[in-house]
């Protein structure tokens, strides 16, 4: 077993939050207005990674999971559910992501995500030992929502809570090879049960799949032309969708109109650059992302993030200084 790696982090913006989960390649956008407060707790023990993350604001996230892994995610929503790769999420859901599949998730404000990510090779070897190869080869499928019972989900959450409590309160115990092996084994067996071959997958409705396709195509176009004036007809042409279909896709999945999302996307890019590019002026960064009226930009920025651009710039500069030392 490898040494244990445990981190916990309080986050103030979506980019910082996305980076808090080790070995994942993901991007976050804050899509609801207000100050962002997040928490990420991440524990790696050999082939197993477990984490819990919460965010005070609704976010849209996409990317790739940890390489060479299968991940179970337990979603708990406080307000409206959300969307995961075309699946509508309810109050509680269990999702699965394989490392060769890109995913996207719209998470409502206050949603809690509990994750168990395990090396696929380790899972396959354990399945062969326990079940004679019955589940040794995992099906080649994209991200999905699993039809797991409340008992299965509660058992997985309990295991994660126990492991994280151990990392917080008795870290020396997790340095013991026997404790590491037993923790990895119990979590791996629980995940195998969660993705057992007879577990039904929730299906994606054709209408939901179409709206996800429209949304993704529109977002790709927006990113590629973020510094240009973009109209709804431009998006309709880029997505081969009607104005009504475009509107429905954005409002159902993101709870925003296409025009509002475009502004939110640009604001998120500005925020990231204010933190990372201290050599550029606020005006230069804002103009690069299509904001040419600085007073209006500052008001929009403050309304969405709960602080002025200058405050974000100051925190970014302080972060760079602390990293340099």
Automatic annotation (TrEMBL):
Keywords: DNA-binding, Transcription, Transcription regulation. The keyword Plastid does not apply. InterPro entries: AraC_XylS_family_regulators, Homeodomain-like_sf, HTH_AraC, HTH_AraC-typ_CS. It comes from the Bacteria. It holds the Pfam family HTH_18. Residues 216-315 form the HTH araC/xylS-type domain. This is Helix-turn-helix domain-containing protein.
